[in-house]
Write a structure and sequence with these properties.
Structural class: mainly alpha
CATH class: Mainly Alpha
CATH architecture: Up-down Bundle
CATH topology: Four Helix Bundle (Hemerythrin (Met), subunit A)
Order of helices and strands: HEHHHEHHH
Number of helices: 7
Helix content: 55-70%
Shape: elongated
Strand content: under 5%
Number of domains: 1
Distance between the termini: 43 Å
Radius of gyration: 17 Å
Length: 192
């Protein structure tokens, strides 16, 4: 019962982030190129499945419900801190991207290549932040389903970011190649 009560805090954090995300999506540049609906579903479905696995679905199979971290308030609060860090990083990146942002893979009218702020640390800081928050949620939950959910969400983001990388290369050419050579994709300070 105690776990359920604390779980509401996680839901409240994700809900507040989602409300901000939706509200801030109104003031963006017009898209001149947008991914197809079929392509979009290719990364949306894994994200939804992964998140439902972590936060909503209560599987009975031990392959998902096995507790890998003991239920303890300390572990829960570490997870909450990681969630807050990830959501804050995603918000910072979203604000820094400004009117160039889109929830879909797009090229905007007068698209700018942003290379400062969080974009100086990683090329896809919004995904880094969201994946960090998902990791925090998995830690707070402490079950194997969190690992599965994080893996599925990561796969969805990899599909999306590969398309974004290709489109940015087509849009910005050598300028993007130089950026890509100097800034890691998802993990700050990592040379992958």
């Amino acid at each position: 019962m105690e776990q359920l009560r604390y779980g509401y805090l996680i839901a409240a954090m994700w809900s507040a982030w989602s409300i901000y995300w939706l509200a801030s999506s109104r003031h963006v540049k017009r898209a001149v190129r947008r991914e197809s609906r079929a392509a979009r579903w290719g990364h949306i479905v894994p994200l939804v499945v992964g998140m439902l696995l972590i936060v909503a679905w209560r599987p009975t199979s031990p392959i998902f419900s096995l507790r890998i971290l003991p239920w303890a308030l300390g572990t829960f609060w570490v997870g909450v801190a990681v969630i807050l860090l990830g959501l804050a990083f995603a918000i910072w990146a979203r604000r820094y991207l400004g009117t160039n942002w889109s929830g879909t893979v797009t090229v905007k009218e007068n698209h700018e290549l942003i290379r400062t702020g969080p974009y100086a640390l990683v090329r896809h800081p919004i995904y880094t932040g969201i994946l960090t928050a998902i990791l925090g949620t998995a830690i707070a939950r402490g079950e194997l389903r969190g690992v599965w959910g994080l893996a599925i969400c990561t796969a969805g983001f990899v599909v999306k970011l590969r398309r974004e990388e290709r489109w940015m290369r087509e849009t910005f050419g050598e300028e993007y190649d130089r950026y890509r050579a100097s800034v890691p994709m998802l993990v700050p300070f990592a040379r992958l």
